[in-house]
Write a structure and sequence with these properties.
The protein is of the alpha/beta class and 402 residues long. It has helices spanning 6-9, 15-28, 47-58, 71-85, 99-111, 126-134, 154-160, 183-194, 220-223, 255-268, 274-285, 289-310, 347-358, 382-397, and strands at residues 34-35, 94-97, 117-122, 138-143, 165-171, 200-204, 231-236, 249-252, 325-329, 360-361, 363-364, 373-377. Helices cover 41% and strands 13% of the residues. The strands form 3 sheets. The chain has a 7-stranded mixed β-sheet, sandwiched between helices. A 3-stranded antiparallel β-sheet has the order 9-12-11. β11 and β12 form a beta hairpin. The longest helix is centred in the last third of the chain and has 22 residues, at 289-310. It starts with 5 loop residues before the first helix and ends in a 5-residue tail after the last helix. The structure holds pyridoxal-5'-phosphate. Pyridoxal-5'-phosphate (PLP) is lined by residues 39, 99-101, 125, 171, 175, 204, 206, 236, 238, 244, 249. Pyridoxal-5'-phosphate is lined by residues 39, 99-101, 125, 171, 175, 204, 206, 236, 238, 244, 249.
Amino acid sequence: MNFSSARLAKVKPAASVMVSQLARDLKAQGRDIIDLGLGQPDFDTPAHIIDAAHQAALAGKTRYTPMRGTTELCDAVCDKFRRENGLDYAHNEMIVSNGAKQIIFNAMLATLEPADEVIMCAPFFGSYRDIVLAVGGTPRTIICKPEDEFRLTPERLQAAITEKTRWVMLNLPSNPAGAVYDEAQLQALGAVLEKHPRIILLSDEIYEHIIFDGRTFVSSAKALPHLKERILTVNGVSKAYAMTGWRIGYGAGPKALIDVMIRVQSQVSSAPCSVAQAAAVEALNGPQDTVGQFREAFQRRRDLVVKHVENIPGFQLKAPGGAFYAYIGCEQLIGSKTSNGEVIDSDTNLAGYLIHEAGVASVPGSAYELSPYIRLSTANSDENLNNAMQRIADAVSRLTRV
Ligand SMILES: Cc1ncc(COP(=O)(O)O)c(C=O)c1O
């Protein structure tokens, strides 16, 4: 029997999760695999955060919390926005969910009518497309080019807008390409959005703290104060505090939008886990030194990968400005042949070749709707990254280029 609804049939499981599953399966068969597929910090959650969760559980904070999130966490999020982003949000303008992903899901389910379009900038975090499809909306992709450092330009944004456009999704810094926007670039996009009052901007700022070379992060709502009433700022503790498993994300925006998102959440999960919320309070309010330490490590690893790529003929990579991925162009390798005479005819094929021949898991650019590229996560130890890059270089050198 087919259990899938027609709507769900369009939704793909996350490519990075599938790649990591394949990596685990191959490891279970005894293969030596370095998994650069999944995007999560390899660091442990800082001990003071774990401790806060433990203490909260012992203190009986084990019951349902308010659907919006606990008062303590809403306070901590308000303080964070004021301190780090220069933004003022009240409690009734925010919601805490099971990860930034659920914030996005709540927002899409709450607002999209069947014909509504959501603009997203390829290469993009694949869940944007699949969440929109899952709730019956229509993704509309704008290709963002390497010559624009993978940023959305005002011209391309203007050209993609129709009367059905409901949301524009921005991700800064972006997964997978590490695109970063400065204030002027955000304002240029804002000038386009100003002309289209039906459009809401979703600004996914989950990689805010993973930004390199001394760049300053500017939140969209800060750069566009006149549009704040139609901006949903999305963030969370997963990436900045190495807390992907705790599943805490938060969103801030106009009260009327947050209200309908809470209505969705009330029927999906009631609220996120009470103990994880206590951990997130400590993450946001407690010592922040690990945030800088993680950033330094991610920048060092980015440099390490960029250096290796410079010596791999057929690969192109400009140092990404943020996040922890290397989105590597591989056009020159398409059409090359393996030693068995098989033709590498796509990035999916190349990623398959690399996992089997080099023992390195990567995600093909097709998952992010911009090919031919492969995405490597640089959130791994220097040693693993050095080994992985060496193995990739060796495997690529065995290809016969045509
Ligand atoms: C751009 C982007 N947004 C959101 C998320 C989801 O984050 P969370 O763990 O808070 O659900 C990810 C995770 O990979 C991401 O890359």
